[in-house]
Design a protein that fits this description.
This protein is 33% helix and 26% strand. By secondary structure, it is of the alpha/beta class. β6 (60-64) and β7 form a beta hairpin. The structure holds guanosine-5'-diphosphate and zinc ion.
Length: 306
């Protein structure tokens, strides 16, 4: 039997089968690498449902774990929505690392600016101007105002329609508030209760997939930091859209855009046509990328790089 993973918590999974029925399951063995959005094959073992295989993923959002391994966060998604707000203050370097991961995974990027009713929203918008220039989609929303006036959700709904979107962002930016507003299907709320009953605590839910009309949303826990999976990053651009556009002008095909002579990327920064803070972000990610590769076994490094 095939099914889709719609919630993960502890060692448990909640699946939805082809008929739309939800059922509890557990992974076979010790695999922790099953995530929301995964399509899986499962068997009945006595009264239990056991996931025996994960079907090949069309896409995945992955991160580097504390042990420097690449691990999935969500699967079979088409869009990454990064939620930011004036408060807590956004970390644009984390934003850039998420954008890099999305670019390299072939996902659409949506920057959701929540709490737009706050006076500090204008400052946040100014800060995000370089992303408009790069033609990333931005959507202003106030979960607080939309709670009273659901019509205010329409631009966000339109940006999510037809996509399976994973919501990421710092804790406190309003991800759960937005997800709650977007999800009005009582069946989804029942799933919340089920997850809560089994584990006793709601906080143990690692991730959830919601059907919201024309959109599918995967909610992930708040993260203060994020490192993309280094296996997924394009080595020459690290997923920086403007670097990709400029790199053809570099003298060296394997230019890393740091100290190399005749680097079109550095030249663009000096001329002010590439945003200097984005370039600083690129340099930081480059250092992180190199450091993380150094922690991999020599054989793996050699296979990847030369
Ligand atoms: P999460 O940690 O990203 O899931 O954030 P929550 O949805 O739990 O929201 C964090 C806090 O921000 C809560 O106190 C919310 O009431 C508040 N919040 C969420 N959306 C808005 C908004 O649009 N405006 C304001 N002022 N506060 C909001
Ligand atoms: Zn270069």
């Amino acid at each position: 039997m095939n099914a889709e993973v719609i919630a993960t918590f502890g060692r448990h999974l909640l699946l939805r089968d082809a008929a739309g029925e939800t059922l509890m399951a557990r992974p076979q063995g010790r695999s922790h690498d099953i995530v929301c959005g995964d399509r899986v094959r499962c068997d009945r073992v006595g009264s239990e449902t056991v996931v025996v295989a994960v079907l090949p993923r069309a896409t995945a959002l992955r991160r580097t774990s504390l042990r420097a391994r690449s691990e999935p966060m969500a699967a079979n998604l088409t869009q990454l929505a990064i939620v930011v707000a004036p408060l807590p203050a956004p970390d644009l370097f984390v934003l850039d690392r998420f954008i890099s991961a999305a670019e390299c995974a072939g996902l659409a990027v949506l920057i959701v600016c929540n709490k737009s009713e706050l006076p500090e929203h204008a400052g946040l918008r100014a800060l995000l101007q370089p992303y408009r220039v790069l033609e990333y989609a931005l959507c202003d929303i106030s979960a607080a105002q939309a709670a009273a006036d659901p019509a205010l959700l329409e631009p966000l709904r339109a940006a999510l329609a037809g996509h399976t979107t994973v919501f990421v962002g710092q804790s406190g930016v309003g991800k759960s508030s937005l997800t709650r507003l977007l999800t009005d299907d009582p069946a989804e709320i029942a799933i919340g209760a089920l997850v809560k009953d089994e584990e006793g605590r709601h906080t143990t839910t690692a991730s959830r997939l919601y059907e919201c009309g024309a959109a599918r949303i995967i909610d992930s826990p708040g993260v203060r930091d994020y490192a993309p999976a280094i296996d997924d990053l394009a080595p020459s651009t690290l997923g920086f859209r403007e670097v990709a556009a400029l790199a053809a002008g570099c003298r060296f095909l394997d230019c890393r855009h740091l100290q190399e002579p005749h680097c079109a990327v550095r030249a663009a920064v000096e001329q002010g046509t590439m945003d200097a803070r984005r370039y600083e972000s690129y340099r930081r990610l480059r250092r992180l990328y190199d450091r993380l590769w150094e922690r991999r076994p020599a054989a793996e490094r050699a296979a990847r790089r030369r």
